[in-house]
Amino acid sequence: MPSNSPVYSMALGQLIAANTPLGPLYENPITCFTPASGTGKLHGEQTCGALRSAASVHEVTTALHDATPRLCANCRWPLPADSPLVGFVDAVRTIRRLESYIGPEPSPDTDFDEAEEQDAAAALATGEYPKERAGTPDDEEKETEEDADDKEWERFKHARLIRERHRGHWRYLHGYMIESAEAVAAHPWLRSFAEPLQHALAVEIERERHALARLLRPQALLDTAAIRALPSPELNVGPEFAILGSDADQTLRRAWSEWQDSAATSWKALEDDHFAAYFVLHDAMKRRRKGRDEAVTALERLTAEWIGAARVVVAHHGRSPRRMVAVKLPTLHYDPYSAESRDPLTDWEAGIIATYQIAANWDTAAVALLLPSLVAEHLISDAGSLMPTAYLDAEESGLSVSVLLANWRPDETGRP
Ligand SMILES: [Zn+2]
Fold first, then answer.
1. Same domain, 301 and 328
2. Is 92 among the domain residues?
3. Rounded to 5 degrees, what are φ and ψ at 78?
């Protein structure tokens, strides 16, 4: 009888192996084609090449556990959307996908040698970009110095690329781990099958996390945590901003808020993060020339003041005790229009998690972080709805971090 439900075509023979636990689907009937002799492989398609030489072909219906060792690896089976096999086979596929991400071979995306990693860490420990040289070189010195400068810029660019790759791979692995946990939650009898793969993947995730953390600066992450707490600055617009005419006040307000938004979500040192403010000024000056340099210098002075104010907040929090925070990791979002995955974590959030994670619970995609109090406050107050967060209290409850984390149900309770 023709069915209106869509039909899926699934490569059962490729995905279900003799060691795949079938759980309640053990006796599930499955329709196959087989040569008249009744021996040999079972096929999903009557047209399978392996059946071409058979004198005649029979259709047989057999229990899944009987069929499993004999399924043809080249065939696909048409399954109605409401077949319990559809979700099950999908879950097995999701779990078996982990096999590609574990093992001794590094991912081609993050296959950097130790010398490269070390050099990247050494470069990024000083900032995002090479420091400018002091003094004015003569002509001959200038040429050699320009060469050296180019090399330095390349070196920092490569270091930033290594950091981006580690972050990207780490976050992709989170996604695969979370999907495999969801597959197990929906098919609990697959747990024993999934666990060794998940343990191996957890090791890879930790490796990537450490590689990323090594390329970040805790001090920069801490400074950033102060940015949202800053009050709007007094902007006394003087003659140095004459180039902006009557728009000066409005332009500087916008420069401040763009600077604040950019600095509060970044893992860069505050000194390396002045572009957002500069671009606002640059746009507002248009092509006017007179007074350009004065305005740029004055804006640099302003951002230096804002940075100074942030450092005061940091110093004020310096001695506060650390706080433990639970975070539910969001997965990457696939945007079908750009065909790209977007990470809902800001650079700063990713940096905080990479640097301060002390435990993970992959059943719930929750991690525990031990944070400087200022960082904890900023993380909790700024986290969007995509990323539930909560304070964990190990001292008062007397429970271990892993137990606290396992008990935390962000999806049911939201924030406490
Ligand atoms: Zn076949």
1. no
2. no
3. -75, 125
Residue 229, Cα to own-chain centre: how many angstroms?
A: 26
pLDDT tens, position by position, 315-343: 998 778 999 999 999 999 988 888 888 99
Q: How far is the CA of 27 from the centre of ligand 1 (A)?
A: 22
pLDDT in tens, 26-44: 999 999 999 887 778 999 9
Distance 39 CA to ligand 1 centre (A): 13
**Other C-beta atoms within 10 Å of 315: how many?**
10
- 131 with 204, same domain? yes
Q: CA 125 to CA 314: how far, in whole Å?
A: 19
Residue 270 DSSP code = G
* 89 CA from centroid of ligand 1 (Å): 17
State pTM to two decimals: 0.90
Judgement on whether residues 327 and 388 belong to the same structural domain of the protein = yes
362: which DSSP letter? T
Looking at the structure of the chain, the number of domains it has is 4
Based on its alpha-carbon atoms, the radius of gyration of the chain, rounded to whole angstroms, reads 29
Residue 106 is classified by DSSP as P
The DSSP secondary-structure symbol of 322 reads P
